[in-house]
Amino acid sequence: xxxxxxxxxxxxxxxxxxxxxxxxxxxxxxxxxxxxxxxxxxxxxxxxxxxxxxxxxxxxxxxxxxxxxxxxxxxxxxxxxxxxxxxxxxxxxxxxxxxxxxxxxxxxxxxxxxxxxxxxxxxxxxxxxxxxxxxxxxxxxxxxxxxxxxxxxxxxxxxxxxxxxxxxxxxxxxxxxxxxxxxxxxxxxxxxxxxxxxxxxxxxxxxxxxxxxxxxxxxxxxxxxxxxxxxxxxxxxxxxxxxxxxxxxxxxxxxxxxxxxxxxxxxxxxxxxxxxxxxxxxxxxxxxxxxxx
Length: 293
Description:
Blueprint: E1 5-6, H1 7-13, H2 19-27, E2 31-33, E3 36-37, E4 44-45, E5 51-53, E6 69-73, E7 77-82, H3 99-106, E8 131-137, H4 140-151, E9 156-164, E10 171-174, E11 177-180, E12 187-190, E13 202-209, E14 213-220, H5 227-234, E15 263-271, E16 277-281, H6 286-292
Parallel strand pairs: 8-15
Antiparallel strand pairs: 1-4, 2-3, 2-5, 6-7, 7-8, 9-14, 9-15, 10-13, 11-12, 13-14, 15-16
Helix pairs in contact: 1-2
């Protein structure tokens, strides 16, 4: 029988996971064809092939699901602080508790909210190693409302970020497009005129210059994957504690030992379903305050 379609593409047609997630599942040995485990997404299949996807080994490890520090809650939304080290939602091959688990534990009805069963109530994300204020929807109407506010760029997000080095100017805007690297497993900055990548806009201002680092206040207009981290690296200002976008050599700079990102979502200002606009603040965590000392 002639092989007509790539395995990852065929699985993505009728699957809740993205194509990149499916590729990770295949590489992780979770997919078999006619009883044989296949680990390359580029494998071609026919309509007669029997494809099986094993239950992702992501049954949660019996680790206590954390309680979230809730800043605000009503019938429509929850505003909370995400700690560093906690993933927002499950990922292929991962078995640890997530923000979603904590939200469902706190409010079980959230499990049915949203357009993706793996990330109920979630309308935006923070990187696992980042921390700070987030919002989640408690019902479908609130979910659709919040999605539109983010899409229309009515949500204002402010981050506190410590970077190695110092910007040339006290304030600035980075507007490099961002695209996923085909070889490095991270996002790469592209010129604004490039046909590759998606629009990404980051504004920054200096709060304080230190000996080898600078504390920045950062606002983002767009919410691309790893946007701040990739844009800062493109300016040769890698975020302290970043294992993925770090520079291998930094002249006269000794790396600071930090097992997390110095990237904290400090403020979130957004319209609420009840018509109000509010700002919610998450103070800098103690472990980051200690670094500044």
